[in-house]
Structures are given as structure tokens and as C-alpha cells.
Design brief:
single chain; 291 residues; mainly alpha; three-stranded parallel beta sheet; 16 helices; disordered C terminus
């Protein structure tokens, strides 16, 4: 996702410096004219605004806050950190406080829309922090998608976590409906087409229904990362004294994929968990539908 997002900034004429722990992943951006930094600190020393989008909260902490190599250590006064990773709201608050102490600013701005949204520049961006700073960044955000100001520091992360909770239960409903339709003897492809224009229609159905039928589990968003997100959601629920059984069920089903070595598949692979539970397979449906 980060590569696609960076490409929009380069095409718009911005000077871009990039860092990636895997150099080969940065090469397409270097070919487009981006400059290479060998650490987040070096990158920040050459930048007014630093965007980060990594895997886990531990990665965010390392990339932004490490005193020896982190971006904040290299950022000049007045610089801005924008973390677009789905991470912990408490970490967003910690980053913001550390940035303020250095006369800088930090915005938590996780995104939704996956690899396709990143490529098309149509991501939903959930921004938390100083509204004035978010407005200053609006020309950059506009190249990546639609920014939604959610409130003070951490509110961007809370909004993204609520987004993931919604997606999780929607995905469970989608694959359960598909397994039920298959067991009932329906043409699952026709079933998906029929419900798409009714009350059961959803973005999840539009994006994932046919991918599931085609057994296309390439990761637009990794199961491993979704498990991480849902785990953060459950932790926040415990902090709030909130019971969300649908979230807990979805997490258990996705954890079962990890247990079967399927963590590097995309989230539509949830169908595999339901197939195993019910000793059925929709794989033959895909062959029939594509013939």
C-alpha cells in the first residue's frame, strides 16, 4: 500500500525520500525519482512531513520513536509525523506527546480501502490530532483518498478499529451466507448477484464475493495483520468494559487460519475456516462458475 501511496505524491510533483527495510520494495519508487534514506532518522532529517505505514505497533514504535534511528530524532522543529498504520490509540498519544516536546506535530491517520484503494487514490483516511495540522496536510491527503477528521489524538485509531470491527462481522456474515447457499443447492454466483442489490449488499460483498468464488486469496490485506487489528480492538474493549461477541468470534475464526499456516493469505480466506467447520468446499463452485 505504501508504495502506491508514495507514487501518487511523486506524480503530483512532491520531492520524496523513502525508507524500507527491504530495499527491493523501494526500487520502483527510486525508479520514479524518489530519494533513498538508510534509516527513518535520515529520512526525517530531509523531510517536512514523514508518513509511516508499517505492520505492527512495535514497528511503529521502532520506526518513529527509537532514539538512535527513529524518525522523530531526525525531524526538524515544525515537522509533522503522520502514522497511517492501524495501531494502538495509546501509542498515538505517546507519539503525539513526544513530538510536541520537540516542537513538532503528530497525526494518527490509519486508512481503509486496501491495496486497491491505495492504487486508485480512494482510501478512507481517519485522522486524529490537531485539526489545524490535519487541514495543512489536506493537499497531501487528497492525493491518497478522502480524509475524515475524527477528533483529538488517538481518535483516528479508534475510528479505524471501529471500521475493522464492522468489517470483521460483515465478512463472517458473507462467508456464512455463501456456505449456506452452497449447502442449499443454490448457484452461489447467482446468489451473490441477487443479494448485491438488496439489503444484504455491501462493500465487502462487492470486493470479496467473486474473489472467494475464484479462490483468489492473494493478500490485499493479510490475515496476520487483520488478527493484529482485531486483537487491538479486543484489548480496547476490555479497557472500556465493552462486550462485542461478534468481534470475538471473528477473531477466533481468523486465528484458526493462522493455526493452519494461512496467515499470509488475504482476509477473504475466511471461507476456508467455515469450509473446514462444515466439511464442505466451494472450490468446485468456482470451476463451474468460470466455465
Amino acid at each position: 500500500m505504501g508504495r502506491s501511496m508514495c507514487s501518487h505524491l511523486i506524480k503530483a510533483g512532491y520531492t520524496l525520500t523513502v525508507f524500507n527495510r527491504t530495499l527491493s520494495k523501494a526500487q520502483p519508487l527510486l525508479d520514479m525519482g524518489a530519494h533513498l534514506a538508510h534509516s527513518p532518522l535520515e529520512l526525517a532529517s530531509k523531510s517536512d512531513v514523514v508518513f509511516s505505514i508499517v505492520g505492527y505497533p512495535s514497528d511503529v514504535r521502532s520506526v518513529l520513536l527509537d532514539p538512535n534511528s527513529g524518525a522523530l530524532s531526525g525531524l526538524r522543529h515544525g515537522g509533522i509525523l503522520v502514522d497511517m498504520t492501524t495501531s494502538e490509540p495509546s501509542l498515538a498519544a505517546e507519539i503525539s506527546a513526544a513530538a510536541s516536546a520537540k516542537l513538532c506535530a503528530a497525526i494518527d491517520a490509519p486508512v481503509s480501502g486496501g491495496d486497491l484503494g491505495a492504487k486508485k487514490g480512494t482510501l478512507a483516511i481517519f485522522a486524529g490530532g490537531d485539526e489545524f495540522v490535519v487541514n495543512r496536510l489536506s493537499p497531501l491527503f487528497a492525493l491518497l483518498g478522502k480524509v475524515n477528521y475524527m477528533g483529538a489524538t488517538g481518535k483516528g485509531q479508534f475510528a479505524k478499529l471501529a471500521n475493522q470491527i464492522t468489517i470483521a462481522s460483515t465478512m463472517v456474515g458473507l462467508v456464512e451466507g455463501m456456505v449456506y447457499a452452497h449447502k442449499a443447492g443454490l448457484d452461489v454466483g447467482l446468489f451473490l448477484e441477487a443479494i448485491s442489490s438488496g439489503a444484504a449488499g455491501s462493500k465487502s460483498l462487492d470486493l470479496n464475493g467473486n474473489r472467494i468464488l475464484k479462490r483468489d486469496f492473494e493478500p490485499g490485506f493479510y490475515v496476520n495483520h487483520f488478527v493484529k487489528d482485531l486483537g487491538i480492538c479486543l484489548k480496547e474493549c476490555q479497557n472500556m468494559g465493552l462486550a462485542l461477541p461478534g468481534l470475538a468470534l471473528a477473531l477466533q475464526l481468523y486465528l484458526s487460519l493462522k493455526a493452519h499456516g494461512e496467515g499470509n493469505l488475504g482476509t477473504p480466506a475466511l471461507i476456508l475456516a467455515l469450509e473446514r467447520l462444515n466439511n464442505v468446499s466451494l472450490e468446485s463452485v468456482a470451476v463451474t462458475s468460470s466455465s
